[in-house]
Amino acid sequence: MPPYTNLPLSPAELAYLHTSLAANPPIRPDARKSTQFRPLIAERNVLPTANGSARVCFADGTEAVVGVKAEVEKTRTAYSQHDGEAVGTLKEVEQEEEGSKGKGRSEWLDLTIDVPGLRDDDALPTFLSALLAEPLLADTGLLDRLYINDRYHWRLYIDILLLSQPLSYPLPLLSLTTHLALLSTRLPALLSEQNEDPLFNDDWEASTYLYPPTTTQNQPTQTPPVTLLVVSVADTILFDPSKEELAVADAVIAVSVTTTSDTTTNIDTTTINNRTTNSATTPLALKLLALRTIDPPSRLTPHTPGSSADTDAASVWMPPRGGMPRSLVGKVVKACLEPGGVGEEVLRGLEGVEW
Amino acid sequence: MTSLKRPHASTTPTTTLSSKTYLRTLKSGKVQKIVRELYLRQDIPCSSQLCSACLDLQPSGFHKKTAPFVLSPTPAGTKNYPQGHYLVPDTNAFLSAMDLFESEGVFQDVVVLQTVLEEVKNRSLPLYNRLIALTKNDGKRFYVFFNDFRLETFVQREAGETINDRNDRAVRQSCIWYAEHLQQAVSARKSARCPAVVMLSDDRDCLRKAKAEGVTCSTLEDYVFALPDADRLLDMVASSKENRVTKEGKAQLLYPDYLSMSAMLTGVKSGTLHQGNFNVSPYNYLEGTVHVPAFDRSLIIQGRENSNRAVSGDIVVVEVLPKDQWKAPSSKVIEEEDVGKNENPENEDGAAEGIVTEQERRALQEEVKRVHGRSTEGQAQPTAKVVGIIKRNWRQYVGHIDKDSVRSRAKESRAQQTVFLVPMDKKVPKIRVRTRQAASLLGQRVLVTIDSWDRESRYPVGHFIRSLGELETKGAETEALLLEWDVQYRPFPKTVLDCLPAEGHGWKVPASTDDPGWQGRRDLRDLLVCSIDPPGCVDIDDALHAKKLPNGNFEVGVHIADVSHFVKPGNAMDKEASLRGTTVYLVDKRIDMLPSLLGTDLCSLKPYVERYAFSVIWEVDSNADIVSSSFTKSVIRSREAFAYEAAQLRIDDQSQQDDLTQGMRHLMMLSKKLRAKRMAAGALNLASPEVRVETESETSDPVDVKTKQLLDTNQLVEEFMLLANISVAAKNYEAFPQVALLRRHAAPPKTNFEELSNQLKTKKGMELKTDSSRALADSLDACQDPANPFFNTLVRILATRCMMSAEYFCSGTQSYPEFRHYGLASEIYTHFTSPIRRYADLEAHRQLAAAIDYEPLDASLQSKSKLEGVCKNINVRHRNAQMAGRASVEYYVGQALKGRVLEEEGFVMRIFSNGFVVFVPRFGIEGLIRLREMSGEEGREPESVFNAEEYWLQIQGKEVERKVELFQKIKVRISDEAEEGTGKRKIRLQLV
């Protein structure tokens, strides 16, 4: 059982935490604001021989390293289905893109997580890798970029290594590190044309970024998705929960967001865009890629047997039940996607990490 | 959190760690990112003898030895740098002017930067090897400075900087450092003269930056211009792109572009394109063939456009043309000097003519007409066009200047002009060369190299290397043919001579049998051994003996010089020998594989002295069947060295009844039986035109030409050598099934004989069976023409040309049935009997010595890949040596015929629609008689009818009217004439 699940907190302490978090404004144990993240230290390109890599340290001592390696692989059969076409409204954009659009395939991505003390097939790593892979796969732009030609593609190995014990739920840490690693990932520049056997420029400096950094202001950036962990306690939502906050959360959801090159899909963002065009930096156009509820560890907290079951007050602490109300989910999504919101703040913050 | 990153990027003056990153594509197609860490140091010396600081600093190696400093304290000065100078050339300087750097006494005190060296390696491996050889040459004073490992000269690549820019900057940085460093060294010595450090570059941008940074620099051309003898030197610089750019605006692209490398490789892999070696037909310079595995017959490439700038010998990628464009091979002789006579080398764009001149088109068009007119569909062979070149196999070519292409003949004229150089090898196109010394090079044999062949140029562009001397002089012609066949003829370097025994000619087989040299050796000094060789032979490889045993059987021994005792694997002498591969015999000269101390003395099985030998001893019954065989290292004393004729006389002389003569008679008797058995097994008796040139002993001027005579004693030696080779091959293969060095002769594919058997059938009604070597031998025997005793030999000569060539190989690379030697009808074969003159034999000796547990097998002989490399090289060397020998004979035959007019018998060997090839057995020469030469008027062909199916040519000229048929015996007049355009002497045949 991961250590973050059984905190040595008494029912009274749990109840106290719950109450202070439910207050308006919420009082978090480390005095953060509800959307504020814990300080973290990050650096990219820590692994010299990987195509891209990053390392992130959270203030609570958890630490992760992600390495991304790309390998040329022969495509087994000629492609037949267009995975990306479900979106439907992308026709014009598709015309302009070169032939790679919609040719990416999900098996080209290989994501593994290594958590110390846990086996590969334990529930936590398996679940985490599914959670992390999901937005990457949903963002077909990534897979399409792995397309070289009809006969060859890149196979991307994302190796995630948690260096410390999983003191708090490691999803945000791993997601941020993966995001950074992918941002720094470069693929060798292709010299050959069309369907020839691929031949690459041997100059590493000439290699291209998997997510090319923006050059002009107005061009929407392509960024890898980032998955944020949000908890709800009563009516408040809290971003980046610490392990104590997780222990009393009513519900936990993971929200994956990314920037989008397409401004029509999200009406909210377009309208908001119009409102804020005169601000110095163009806000990022964000889109929601995935949203998942996670079984909160608070469910496993001990239920204190009350003196009598009929009064609420009698019970000091009741493990929460049920999920997150729709209204709260809406609030979370809005907080993530709105300009100047949490999503933009996180993405901008990570973009600024030194090379 | 402390950063985990190694601080590669930040090179503050104190950090000594840096890195460089690059990508490597593996054979499997995978791409690897490689990061190399660089540890920068400060003790890499400048190697100038001016500097004492570096002398103290320099790390010492094994035995506290330090490398001596290379650069002279008083380097030579020039007009521009009177105080003396060190040169720091950049990559392009080496790439474009390697010949210049190599030429004696011109460039000295050169700093070769590591950056430059690596770039040269990436761009051209052969040039890199030449540069490395230069740096090892003591007299040249070339010093490799590892600038990328020295802290002060290391340059970190900046963001967005191209590799080239970074490397240029590294060169400049090194120049700055050298200049400063020398300044310090000089002031420490309190001497006034500080040599300049001159950077050589042709990159304008780099020169500009260098000037801004205060680096002394010069373009290559400016630098050379200031040297004495600049004209000759400037010709050695490859014509740079810069010079050609001026005309680019109007230049027309004559040739189609090549495909990209990746497109070619993809095409070859998927089978839509084919890769092969480009060979030009010796009779028609516009037609080439490429043999590719996918087709039985070679693909034909016709015309300039299809051959698309490929030069004979290049590895090309071709695309097969559609079937309606398939053709029969040309039946016409087209020579470049006839067709392209009036071309002007200055006319670069050739826009008026396009890629194919009018004459050429006409020459080819008749061709097409004729082929179309014929109904035989099966004759058409697939044709192809070159779409790209995998590897250029350009080498240095020997040739002469086309006299007509020289505009001003005045010797003083220093004007630069473009001239055509006609290579000696007819398969190589004319080379356009810019020179200032055209007039003085006229009538000389010159060495040139091809630099490039651009799309806008009809002919390749090259530059002069040096002149070999006057045409027709013996020295120049001999050197020319050695160069043409890539024979190493420089004297053995000191490192090789150091491997010789210290005693020199005084070396003797140790007297005491306790000496380590005797260990494992049998004492065979009491055997009556003798050697039989051509007259005047000094490198005696083999000796023989035979004696009758009490049981009626015979003991026969073949004793081979024990070269492997003197040449240990892996030392300098062994390396040199493996490079040379074989001794090359020219008419008046022998280019040895081993230093002559070994070849002609210590190893040579000279008579009356004791020598180490490697002996193969058989017991054979009177039917010449082997009862048992043994192999041993031995010591022998040859009783006599016979020439073939002397041996024959001795055997025939019944008055001689001594044991030695008796032994020789036994050998003779056994050899005849062996030969009969071999013939019965289907060995081929092939023939090649062999002549011997008799020379005057003093001047070695040719006096007469004789065809070689074959005596029974020749065959005696041959039979036993074959037997020894076969026995050793079997033994080596048994001991080392994976790495035995063997020789095989593949059965020729049936298609090779198609033409010949068709010719025999239609002309003589004879049939050539080619199912097996036995069938072929029998049908060759049956090819007799009672009226014409030479006819049989002629057929054999032609049949030999249809064969594959025998080759050395490593047993692990082929399956056992493939080992077969077709010509000898032997299952397994190797070369063992001539270790003095063939490297393969030496390797076989080493393997046999290991097989009999005499010594352990050297590691180099246990590795299949290494052995394959050796085989590949000696196969090439072997062929080249044969070619060089033949060319030498040809030259001397020409010299012997000089000024004479003879009438001789000849045979028609091959018929073209505009001429025929005649073979003159008396001199072993083959010559072309063209119809054009038979009409009275110059340059006009008489009317003629050519029948390709029946191989005859009817000439209906005004004066001559006759029919020439294949295999016909005709009389020809042989004379020699100096060719007008070139001043070159040529043998000319005329029909009488």
TrEMBL record, chain A:
One of its GO terms (biological process) is nuclear mRNA surveillance. Gene3D superfamilies: GHMP Kinase, N-terminal domain (3.30.230.70). The keyword Cytoplasm applies. Residues 36-188 form the Exoribonuclease phosphorolytic domain. InterPro entries: ExoRNase_PH_dom1 (IPR001247), Exosome_comp_Rrp42_subfam (IPR050590), PNPase/RNase_PH_dom_sf (IPR027408), Ribosomal_Su5_D2-typ_SF (IPR020568). It is found in: Cytoplasm; Nucleus, Nucleolus. Keywords: Cytoplasm, Exosome. Its main location: cytoplasm. GO terms for cellular component: cytoplasmic exosome (RNase complex); nuclear exosome (RNase complex); nucleolus. It comes from the Eukaryota. GO terms for molecular function: mRNA 3'-UTR AU-rich region binding. Residues 296-316 are annotated as: Disordered. PANTHER family: EXOSOME COMPLEX COMPONENT RRP42, EXOSOME COMPLEX EXONUCLEASE RIBOSOMAL RNA PROCESSING PROTEIN. Belongs to the RNase PH family. This is Ribosomal RNA-processing protein 42. It comes from Salinomyces thailandicus.
From TrEMBL, chain B:
Its cofactor is Mg(2+). GO terms for molecular function: 3'-5'-RNA exonuclease activity; endonuclease activity; RNA binding. InterPro entries: Dis3_CSD2, NA-bd_OB-fold, PIN-like_dom_sf, PIN_dom, RNase_II/R, RNase_II/R_CS, RNR_Ribonuclease, Rrp44_CSD1. Residues 894-992 form the S1 motif domain. Its main location: cytoplasm. GO terms for cellular component: cytoplasmic exosome (RNase complex); nuclear exosome (RNase complex); nucleolus. GO terms for biological process: CUT catabolic process; nuclear mRNA surveillance of mRNA 3'-end processing; rRNA catabolic process; rRNA processing. Residues 329-350 are annotated as: Disordered. Pfam families: OB_Dis3 (PF17849), PIN_4 (PF13638), RNB (PF00773), Rrp44_CSD1 (PF17216), Rrp44_S1 (PF17215). It is found in: Cytoplasm; Nucleus, Nucleolus. Keywords: Cytoplasm, Endonuclease, Exonuclease, Exosome, Hydrolase, Nuclease, Nucleus, RNA-binding, rRNA processing. Belongs to the RNR ribonuclease family. This is Ribosomal RNA-processing protein 44. It comes from Salinomyces thailandicus. The lineage of its organism: Eukaryota, Fungi, Dikarya, Ascomycota, Pezizomycotina.
